[in-house]
Amino acid sequence: MNNVDSKKPTTQKIFGTVINEDDASHLVGGIVEKGFSEQPLKPPTSWSSAPRPTVLPFPVARHRAHGPHWTPKVGVVRGNNDRDGEENEEDFTGMDQIGAFAKPMERKENKGLDFSRWREIVASDNSSVPSKREESARKLTSTSKERKAVAKVSRNKSNLDERTPDKYGKGAVLSVEDGAKSQDISMEDEHMVQEQEEDMAMDIEQGGMEQSAYRSVLPEQRCGNGITEQEEEIIEDMHPTLQVNAQKHNISANKTDTSFDSQEVEGRQNASSLESQIDAENQAQLARMSADEIAEAQAELMAKFSPAMLAALKRKGQEKLKRGKSSKSGSHHSGEKGNLLDQMNNATSQGTLKNVKDDTPKLSACTSVWDDWSKRVESVRELRFSLDGNIVKREFDVSKRGNTSSYAEKNLSERDYLRTEGDPGAAGYTIKEAVALARSMVPGQRTFAFHLIASVLDRAMHNIQQNQLGCILRSQDRDGLTDWEAIWAFTLGPEPELALLLRMYLDDNHNSVVLACARAIQCALTFEINEEFFEIVERIPTLQREAPTAPVFRSRPEIEDGFLHGGFWKYNAKPSNILPFARDYLDNDESGHTIQDDVVVAGQDIAAGLIRMGILQRIQYLLETVPSTALEECLISILIAIARHSPTCAAAVMKCQQLVETIINRFTSKEQMEISTSKIKSVTLLKLLARFDKNCLEFVKTGIVQKMTWHLYRYTSFDHWVKSGKEACKLSSALLVEQLRLWKVCVQHGYCVSFFDDLFPALCMWLNVPAFGKLIENSVLSEYTAIAKEAYLVLGALTRRLPTFYSHMQHLDGGTTKEAESWCWAQVGPMIDSALESIRIKEIPLLSRLFEGENEEKLNGDMQDSAVPPLLWLISSIMDMLAAVLEAVIPEDNAELCHGTLPWLPDFVPKIGLAILKNGLMSFSSISSTSHDAASGSSSFLERLCYLRKINQQETSIASNSCLQGLLRVAWCVDKLILLANNEPRNPLPYQGSTREEKTLTAGILHSSLPELRALMASVMESNSSEWRHMQSIETFGRGGPAPGIGVGWGAPGGGFWSKNILSAQVAARLFIYLLDVLPIVSVKDQFTAEQMNSIIQKINSVMGACLLLGPMDSSAVDKLLDFLFQVPTLKYIDFSICQFLNLNQGFQSFKLVYQEEDYLLLSDVLASHFKKKWLSAKQKRKSAAGNEQAFHKNSKKRTVLLDTIPEENSESNPASQEPKCLVAEWAHQRLPLPLHWFLSPLSVLCSTSHESLDFLKVAKGGLFFLLGIELMSTFLPAELQTPVRNVPVVWKLHALSATLLSGMSIFEEDNSRDLYKALQDVYGQLLDREEKVNAKSLKFKTDIHENYSTFIDNLVEQFAAVSYGDMIFGRQVGVYLHQFVEAPVRLAAWNALSNACALELLPPLEKCIAATYGYLEPVEDDERILEAYCKSWVSGALDKAARRGSASFTLALHHLSSFIFQTCSGNMIPLRNKLVKSLLRDYSRKKQHEVLFINLLEYQRPDTRSEPFHKECMPLQSCDVVNRLQILNKACEGNSSLLNEVEKLNSVITRKQHVDS
């Protein structure tokens, strides 16, 4: 199947299906479109047209007959002269009558045309679009009139393979003869001018020397017969095997010069077919020729061309080879680009959609990663799938077997699963064939198609999740592997238009089709896999917020922020485009809203597109019609996926009239005691909607919460619940868990706290210690622990509504508290007792094995039991509740303390501490062994959890980390409270006894477990050092994933940000934050020991890695990490490490940093404030949502553009770590996760205008100190260890240094800052020298940083010329852009900017520049533009002062010009050499002051080895070498007498000089 170029306004696709002669045979079962004919029935002697949609959108649920109308046409095909006004016909009987005549489509035989060989040749090329470059040689000098003719032939050739439909989709399946008589004529008349211009643009871009010999003929003005005289002579002298083919080629090309009328269309189509056959014959002939014969033929051709023409043709051929595959993908991969980068160029409608603007960042198509990805997606087009979603085996691949298969493409429509023997589906279906089959009139075929689509989607997503996280393999590395990422992206892409198809057939009037369509929608929204992820998230006690699943992308970096990546995330589909008309939709003019707008939004975000198409109203209608159980479950699942999408979609569900009410009525109207999956999902939906405070308050006021949670009162007897049966226990457990979560959400908002009094008797059943033997016997242990765990999480939420303990006690006499929704401390005591009873680990059968001292292999085998993770989740929820109680006791400030101590210590505090120690949760003494093989009884639960967190089971690892975090929180709170109480020695505390546990409690629980905690810290730091790399490899093309799905449906390998591996790493990072509080850095005035240095370096490295792991739900955690990184003890160590490194390493200028205590405090405050404001601040909306909505409705009728771009707002609010107003942490409008180079932001703040409240200079100076410190500390780590600092490319580090100077030299005012800057330059120079061994072209400023980097260079050079006065440090920084590792365009921009600013002489000598001098000199420059720039500066005199001052600019020009002219120039570069020599000699003749410069150029000796140091005054050449160079100059003059005289004069001057020297 051929792809349609999205940039052509004449290429029209109607809902993703372009039916041509080939595609018609793919449609299965003789498909007849479902709909109504607008014309009277005519004999079924003609074909049925492609469906034509009306502009009627999907505002409300309605019958399918209301539109969009699929209009099958019979009889004569109308041209483009038909008007929309002719649609008002009232004959709706065509469908019933034409159905009787529906027969399989048969291919018409075209006598005299053999397409079989042509198909093989096209199949051998990895392109689905025929080449349009066969006339490239003639186009070099052809006139515009001839180019139009060439464009016509090229287009006709393309139409031979695929008939382009007209505006209404007619003409899509015409044969060659029919198409010649009708369709193409009307199409060409309407769009001729635009297509000619676009074809010429494509031909010029893709033009080059072809492999075939006849394509290299010199283009000339053609005479009457189409063959020039020169071409006739060439043909006569050609190799005999190529003469006939060349003559045929010219004859066929001659036919293109005739006028375009209907009688000659068929002849020109035959000519274009003849061209294809000629090309095939040439390819075959070349394959039969030997290498010598080919060389001989090439020599004959080259002898006929002038050198200038040969050079031009070779250059064109080289350009074509360089872009090769990218030039092909650039035309027919646009559909996938539109999907993956949301650059919707409208590959699915006529022209470019005028009411769509896209502001997503555009990736340069020249990058290898993007090109490779485009090829991967394009290859999916030909894949065929079976009903179970698997790719069919190669022996059934009809595209390669041709007619040998019994189910080839031409008879695919004859498949009949009821009357065909064998396996009719063995050949499989492509994605587009399945989409076409879904439009069949036969309900069974539609159901089959949707089952196939659902199977492909489901299998693709499960395989994507199982792939290696962040692994982006190239095409050549995927041999034998199915590329499921590309399959998923193509299926959700704009070409199949899957969203529109799914939305349309949800309106079907056959229940089986509706159910299959609903299941396909469920798969497209990745409901099941997303719910698995969020199920684990719900179990983590410390995660109070969830992230929406809407696809997002990064905003484009700007020069104002130093081009730093990591901008604010933005939704793929703007929220205002999801519900563009709101309530006024039905009252407004519908002409402005078209289905194509919906398709475009669906291409950006499939869930947003479905909502825009009115899926919510249709779901409401289906729920009101009493659907089947399976359909109801699917529909509610779709609503859950939509509610998780974004706050806008959740609001859309709430605003859909009576939708929520319908769900609640179905929940309550069914059998009260019956529990079904749909009921469970209904509660889940209400819970998701209640995450927003406004919705939650409405649910509470209307009594919806009580209605949806009444099952919590149902069970009061443990035995009754167990005896109900395993299946009943599973259903009841799932329902009770969701109802408890709904209650917890309400409690988190401050509502429904009073429900506790009524629910306490029912909760006691789940809070008390159960009979584990009975649970294990009935196989319901997991179900019971799930309910108990959720009950303790609810108690944890209730404890966070407790008032401060001591302030509450002081106001007990005043009656009740002011807040009616606060929990009471009197109710806490029984809950603590139940919790302490439940943490007797040694009495729980499965967990007691942890203390039996078995080896790790046996322990790992026991942990395979599926009941272990639920028990760990139960322990973590209990620890969370106890920690929340203890945190409520700790005073918020010292005002509540009496003489620095607590008034009294509550009895439950030491009780909790003793329970931890007696139950073996933590060690008794600091001498306890840390070995996992320790003797029985010596191992603690903490030690065993340290092992469990490292096993491969993800859920067990996450649960273990949660248990550890909760345990550390409880121990820290107990130690804190006891420390505050022990400050008062007058009253001995009741727990101070003689037992071992009591003594340990007095000394501190954490202090007694220091060895275990240090081992745990080492284990966590080790995991952090590797996991952050996976996080950085996920974000591709500036977005979270390449597909417009939701959640895991973003399409990133391994699940991307929604991977359980990433979730496990994030939980471990939060555990690491608590360990930093337990094991802090101790401030030392003088020096650090070697052990302390190693420990602090590892901690800082782990903090840098943890910052990269945390996402939008963890802004408060990132805030704590930044506090640790910029605390005073850490900064003191950084200062100490800088001094130590500079003193111990040679090659660095030693300097003394003078920082006092107040300087450290200032640095800490400035750096912490900057990083929090830069990376943790959320984007602030300019207007309220209500104001925007009113403005939109006010201007909705006047607007011509419905889908706005997403504006960039610079205003920012307070840090996002503040308490959220809702329980949703949006991806959009914030920056987490941090980019890899986030720590470079202080150096770019000088060129930013968004941080007005901070002192720019102080931030930059502090940034220099911090960057130098972490760079030098990374040198102390093992070389094989990958650290975040090391992984930042040196190009970003050098760019950050340059960004600091963009506003001037203010940063050099202080000696400390100047020394730090120069030291950073030296460090980065060493990195650059080391990278030469790995990547010789590593400084890709334009590719890696920004495509408009030349603008940055211009601004920097302008500052350098204006304020530097030749400052060496500033000059070193500017000079680095002339390094040979820098991209040629950037080097050229830097040289031109320096030359135009007359600043070339301000650069320092080459030996004082950043990095080794060899990198500036080698390899010798071969870029024509740069060499010409060097020559221009030489001739203009811009290098005169530079030569006198010994500037690096003159050295570079001298070296590269001399080396290129006299040593490295060869082959096709000789014309350039001659041009340069002529310019230099003319300059020498005119300016006698340049005589010394030219002699230096002639006598310059290029350094031979890297080890040889660079000398400005090289040893003079031997006389024989000078003679050889003079001969080169003579040759370059090309016989110009005046220039030859100058060479002679130069020879005499050199002779005299040598004589004087001797």
Structural features, described:
This protein has about 1550 residues and is mostly helical. Among the domains are: about 110-315, no CATH class; about 710-785 and about 795-835, no CATH class; about 840-1010, no CATH class; about 1330-1555. Helices cover about 55% and strands about 0% of the residues. It has 68 helices and 4 strands. It has a two-stranded antiparallel ribbon. A two-stranded antiparallel ribbon has the order 3-4. It starts with 20 loop residues before the first helix and ends with a helix.
Q: List the strand order in the largest sheet.
A: 1-2
Task: State mean pLDDT (0 to 100 scale).
Answer: 74
Percentage of residues assigned to helices = 40-55%
Largest sheet: 2 strands, antiparallel
- What is the count of DSSP helices, taking H or I runs of 4+ residues? 68
| Beta strand count | 4
Shape: globular
Q: Detail the poorly predicted runs.
A: 1-95, 110-272, 324-366, 396-413, 582-590, 812-820, 927-937, 984-988, 1183-1220, 1505-1509
What structural class do the secondary elements suggest?
A: mainly alpha
**Beginning-to-end CA distance, first to last residue:** 79 Å
Spatial extent as radius of gyration: 38 Å
Summary tags:
globular, mainly alpha, two-stranded antiparallel ribbon, 4 strands, 1558 residues
